[in-house]
């Protein structure tokens, strides 16, 4: 559409300039009566038509316009409105950046104008028309040059600002991706290593062959899962041009998570209401939040029971993990911070703290249709 408008404007300009030059010729000659006046007619028409291609061929069109001015002066022995054709051509030459060529064309036109004007000048009169023409050309060259420099400076400033915005956006995306990878590694390693530590402690403090075998089996299974998830994460990072981590576990593996997170003195119940299909990023966030919350229960709470609830709430999904532990939470560590970052990245929120009747509660609200971070807080 913009190209069509540009061509239309160019055509309109050529027609207007050509019409002015043609009418000026007729008025100046008071009709086309002589052979020279009829010969000047194609000069006006051809030079005006050449303006249509002035943007693609600015210098040749400028030369054609200058030649037309000279021919007009030779034929009619006076300058005329055809100078408007030359002014438009000269403007284009300057605007396209050919300043030296424009100065040369301007000087040549002043000479041609002075020669043509000298035929009608008396010996005692001043050549004011020539000076006026020269002033016009100087104004065109200087004015367009100044505007062009200002335009180029503005274009360079816009380009620099756009490049800076792109660099800032790239840094922001890289930072977000780095934080997301850090959260994934923390959740994978933190959870599984905590379980290994708990099972190893149980095997050491209770030298029961049966329980020791159960603990070692659990350690073997947990370490296998750790290595599997770690390989998957690192495999994505090694891929050239990898932009994001592959989809991870979700609600479908929640039962396995609860089973491996438990210990003999800790009972974990799940209360899962039927939810619609969750987007992969929300499904992963639900799993990781429950995983981190259960890790904290196993490590710090001293709890005997814990409850995991996942249920829909309008356009959100609620995730709650409660325990009856007696340990007082200290300064929030990277686990709670990571859970909160996960929720905020999806446009949700997360709260964690002690309950009035004892125990600790983690509650996350995640929008099923994720929006901008912090939008729903």
What can be said about this structure in brief?
This protein has 377 residues and is an alpha+beta fold. The protein has ten helices and five strands.
Task: Describe this structure as you would to a colleague.
The chain is an alpha+beta fold and 377 residues long. Among the domains are: 2-125, no CATH class; 251-377, Heat Shock Protein 90 (2-Layer Sandwich), CATH 3.30.565. 65% of the residues lie in helices and 10% in strands. Strands 1-2-3-5-4 form a five-stranded mixed β-sheet, with helices on one face. Helix 6 (128-205) crosses helix 9 (280-301). The two termini are 43 Å apart. The model is unreliable at 370-377 (pLDDT under 50).
Topology:
Blueprint: H1 2-29, H2 35-50, H3 58-76, H4 83-95, H5 99-118, H6 128-205, H7 209-238, H8 254-261, E1 267-272, H9 280-301, E2 305-313, E3 316-323, H10 334-345, E4 349-354, E5 360-367
Parallel strand pairs: 1-2
Antiparallel strand pairs: 2-3, 3-5, 4-5
């Amino acid at each position: 559409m913009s190209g069509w408008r540009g061509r239309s404007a160019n055509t309109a300009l050529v027609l207007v300039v050509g019409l002015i030059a043609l009418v000026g010729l007729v008025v100046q000659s008071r009709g086309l009566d002589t052979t020279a006046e009829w010969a000047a007619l194609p000069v006006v028409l051809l030079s005006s038509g050449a303006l249509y291609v002035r943007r693609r061929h600015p210098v040749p069109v400028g030369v054609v316009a200058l030649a037309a001015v000279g021919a007009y002066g030779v034929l009619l022995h006076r300058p005329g409105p055809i100078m408007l054709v030359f002014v438009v051509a000269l403007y284009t030459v300057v605007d396209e950046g050919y300043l030296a060529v424009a100065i040369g064309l301007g000087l040549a036109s002043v000479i041609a104008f002075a020669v043509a004007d000298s035929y009608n000048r008396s010996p005692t009169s001043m050549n004011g028309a020539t000076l006026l023409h020269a002033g016009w050309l100087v104004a065109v060259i200087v004015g367009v040059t100044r505007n062009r420099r200002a335009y180029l400076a503005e274009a360079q400033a816009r380009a620099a600002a756009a490049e800076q915005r792109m660099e800032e956006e790239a840094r922001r995306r890289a930072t977000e991706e780095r934080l997301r990878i850090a959260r994934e590694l923390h959740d994978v390693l933190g959870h599984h290593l905590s379980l290994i530590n708990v099972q190893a402690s149980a095997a050491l403090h209770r030298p029961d062959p049966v329980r020791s075998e159960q603990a070692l089996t659990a350690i073997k299974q947990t370490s296998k899962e750790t290595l599997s998830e770690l390989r998957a994460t690192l495999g994505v990072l090694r891929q050239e041009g990898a932009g994001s981590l592959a989809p991870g576990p979700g609600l479908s593996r929640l039962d396995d998570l609860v089973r491996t997170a438990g210990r003999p003195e800790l009972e974990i119940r799940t209360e899962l209401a039927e939810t619609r299909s969750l987007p992969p990023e929300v499904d992963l966030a639900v799993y990781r939040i429950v995983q981190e919350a259960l890790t904290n229960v196993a490590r710090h709470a001293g709890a005997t029971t814990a409850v995991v609830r996942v249920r829909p709430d309008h356009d959100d999904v609620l995730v709650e993990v409660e325990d009856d532990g007696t340990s007082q939470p200290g300064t929030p560590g990277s686990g709670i911070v990571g859970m909160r970052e996960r929720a905020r990245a999806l446009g949700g929120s997360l709260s964690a703290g002690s309950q009035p009747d004892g125990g600790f509660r983690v509650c996350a609200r995640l929008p099923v249709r994720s929006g901008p971070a912090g939008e729903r807080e």
